Amino acid sequence: MRLALYTLAALLALGAGTVCAADEAEKEPGTRGPELMRQGKTSEAIDEFLKAIDLNPKDTTSRLHLATIYEREGRVDEAAYHYEKVLKVDPRNVTAHNNLGVVYDRKGLSEQARGEFEAALDVDPQNALAAKNLETAKKNQSIREERERQIAAARQAAEAKPEKAGAFYALARTYAFYGDNQQALATLEKAVRLGFNDLAYMKVDAALEGLRNDPDFQRLLARK
After folding, report:
1. Which of 87, 117, 166, 223 has its Cβ near the most Cβ atoms within 10 Å?
2. Domain contains 103
3. What is the pLDDT of residues 110-124, one digit of tens each?
4. Which helix (H) or strand (E) holds 106?
5. Which residues contact 115 (CB under 8 A, 6 or more apart)?
């Protein structure tokens, strides 16, 4: 469970008129990228921005666009890399600070996320989005800390009674509740091996809702 944070869109330097193919061919690398983004031609836009960055590693506009694309595609490590590169050239870039904070939060790096939002507010104290994201990041950090506390407590209880199926079932429920389906399934397997046999309850247990359509979960229920 995590609250959503929001990015500032990289500024698109788009002209109002239609550009003919001959004119486009003469453009500098990267200048066609924003239009390609608008057309939904993501792969071509990425190529344009990468060409521009190869020619000029300090091209922060192309890096911002590229990082924005990567972020939208869930390629958070690549997005973070390019936002960080922007900030090396332009340490006061509010968009890069805010968006990097969002990426860090998605990676679970709470302290780094808060630091980026605070840096954005140092540059622009009236930035409402960065202020909102900072508050959300603080809440997300609390959620993560509570998640870790609950999982650690359930794991400790299971380890203290390694022969008790119920303890491992409780640990599996905790993993599932917090969205760690892989660990939840592995722990459920162990609980069943140890003798947990209340499969009717397992089918309706609200904590396992996220596992309902998982083939491994279905196979586990079909064993008995």
Report:
1. 117
2. yes
3. 899 999 999 999 999
4. helix 94-106
5. 101
Q: What is the CATH number of the domain that holds 84?
A: 1.25.40.10
Q: Name the residue among 163, 208, 175 with its Cα closest to residue 220.
A: 208
Question: What gap in Å lies between CA 62 and CA 52, rounded to an integer?
Answer: 7
User: Contact, 189 vs 219, CB < 8 A?
Assistant: no
Same domain, 60 and 136: yes
Helix (H) or strand (E) holding 61: helix 60-72
35 and 109 together in one domain = yes
Other CB atoms within 10 Å distance of the CB of residue 82: 26
Q: Final residue of a domain: which of 107, 140, 173?
A: 140
| Predicted TM-score (pTM) of this structure | 0.69
Report the candidate in 76, 72, 70, 73 with the shortest Cα–Cα distance to residue 53: 70
DSSP summary character for residue 205: -
- Tens of pLDDT, residue by residue over 122-147, are 999 999 999 999 999 999 889 889 99
Domain span at 205: 161-221
pLDDT tens readout for residues 14-27: 333 333 333 444 45
Q: Please report whether residue 49 resides in a domain.
A: yes
The verdict on 216 and 122 lying in the same domain is no
**Is residue 133 domain-shared with residue 189, that is, in the same domain?**
no
For tokens 């079909």, the residue is 222
Instruction: Tell the residue number behind the tokens 């020619």, with chain if given.
Output: 55
